[in-house]
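## retry 2 of 3
previous attempt timed out at serialization; input unchanged, resubmitting
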Amino acid sequence: MGSIKQGTKEYHRANIALFAGGLNTFAILYCTQPLLPEFSAEFHISPAVASLSLSFTTITLAISMLFVGSLSEAWGRKKIMMISLCTASVFAFCTAFSSHFPVLLGLRVLTGIVLAGLPSIAMAYLGEEIEARSLGVAMGLYISGNSVGGMGGRIITGTLADHFNWHVALAGIGVLSLVCTILFWTMLPASKNFTPRKLEGKTLAKSLWSHCKDERMLYLFGLSFLFMGSFVTLYNYIGYQLLAPPYSLSQTIVGWIFIVYLVGTFSSAWMGRLADQYGRIKMIWSALIIMFLGVCLTLDGYLLVKIAGIAIFTFGFFGGHSVASGWVGQLATHDKAQASSLYLFCYYAGSSVGGTVGGLFWSGLGWSGVVGFILAFLLIAFILSIRLKAVTQQVFHGNNVLD
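## retry succeeded, writing output
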């Protein structure tokens, strides 16, 4: 059980460090997203193929997290997270000098592998070190770092690519990554409630399978796939629409539209607190309804309404993800790193599948096709959440904290 309480010096240091780590991870992970139109033009590839610069990274990240979480059980949480951030910074710089798309894809694959160290462990670290009553806020702040990183990475690359080129844009992300890595290293408290264990492949497989036998976990894993799949699909292809007539916006302006990520910074912490107070399933339903309304608004041809729809959709996504990820940490009574890894495996698998398949809908049906694809994901998520509520009530007999 965590011992770091809200309001203490250690609590603030842990939050700052993991905020920086989340910012770093997501800035690197999604830095190519606003550059997809640039890749399509320079390398003469379709939007779906260009999206592989993101999808390859997220799928290798997802696979790696299944193993990296177990490495941390033997080698320690902070050590693995530091190695992850340092090596990711190096690959971020190398990617900036790519001259051929296959080379860029290869480097992005390596980036996905090494990036796995932080997101697969951060939630387990929080679950072990932060007391239960303070966990909702701490998890929300960590997710907030993710949203700021996603926003900042997109704005930086979009702006620098417009004024210079995409090579300079990716180099800028490398500089940001180094700064965040130093901050993480100096601020994160050492683990006090972590007990190292011998690394065994058979034990890992048994641990992963034990979580998969929990029906509640399976529904949460499914929700993570659908949340992220719909979210990345929207952001992958909205740039193509806004750069083309009748909007014909510049790459800089399109990049700055991602400032709406700030609403995610607020909603993740806010809905995390509401979940602690009113129940997680209610907040997941609220998040899905908000996302549904937001994506429908993007069908409007008026630019300000479209941007408002993106902001509303983003608000719902980060709130829902914060609640679902925190729930995984509470349900996992053992091997928390493996539980987090499975949740995030499905999360990033959704990013890879949804982000690339959505490109086929964009090419064939335009923006209305993309919206239809996202709505289908959200509808399935509603069905899963209803089943999750039913199973949770059976297990906990209506306990309001988890219901």
